[in-house]
Design a protein that fits this description.
Layout (H helix, E strand, L loop, with lengths): L1 H6 L1 H10 L2 H15 L4 H14 L2 H18 L6 H17 L7 H11 L8 H39 L1
Helix pairs in contact: 2-3, 2-8, 3-4, 3-8, 4-8, 5-6, 5-7, 5-8, 6-7
Length: 162
């Protein structure tokens, strides 16, 4: 399995260069099927679903960026309720984000508004966002690949028991 994940690096390289998990889908599915021995039926279902919903890199970035902006703009430290609000809105916004570059910037408005931070704070992270977008897309694609591998393994075990 280690060799399969190393050989699937072209999906991660494409994710890094395009910053779009949607654009990476055909290559990701091909790598999963040809190099990681994941059944095509599983890969064709799990990976597009993951590209739409499983945005773990996006959630992490959005929460950290929101906390950074809130810390700079708001005078008081974040309360536990504000931290929970950031977490919940970041998760919901990431699920609703499109699989295209910089889509998270639109969703960041929702998160910042939820805790009363000014949306102008987004300007603080725009300069570094392109590189970070490329990195978080790699995390998203890697998460989709891991999910497909887990479902494939669980399905294989289920079929053996039947």
């Amino acid at each position: 399995m280690e060799t399969a994940s190393i050989e699937g690096r072209e999906a991660l390289a494409l994710a890094f260069s395009t910053a779009s998990s949607g654009a990476t889908l055909p290559v990701t599915i091909r790598c999963q099927v040809e190099k990681a021995d994941i059944r095509r039926e599983i890969s064709s279902f799990v990976t597009p679903l993951g590209a739409t919903v499983n945005m773990d890199g996006t959630v992490l970035y959005e929460a950290i960026a929101a906390i950074f902006i809130v810390t700079i703009y708001l005078p008081d430290p974040l309360t536990l309720a504000q931290q929970a609000t950031i977490f919940i809105t970041a998760v919901l916004a990431a699920v609703g984000a499109a699989a295209i570059p910089h889509a998270i910037m639109v969703m960041m408005v929702i998160v910042l508004t939820a805790v009363g931070a000014p949306i102008e704070g987004i300007g603080l992270i725009l300069a570094a966002d392109r590189l970070l977008d490329m990195c978080r897309t790699m995390v998203n694609v890697w998460g989709d690949c891991v999910c497909a591998a887990v479902v494939n393994t669980a399905e294989a075990k289920h079929l053996k028991q039947s």
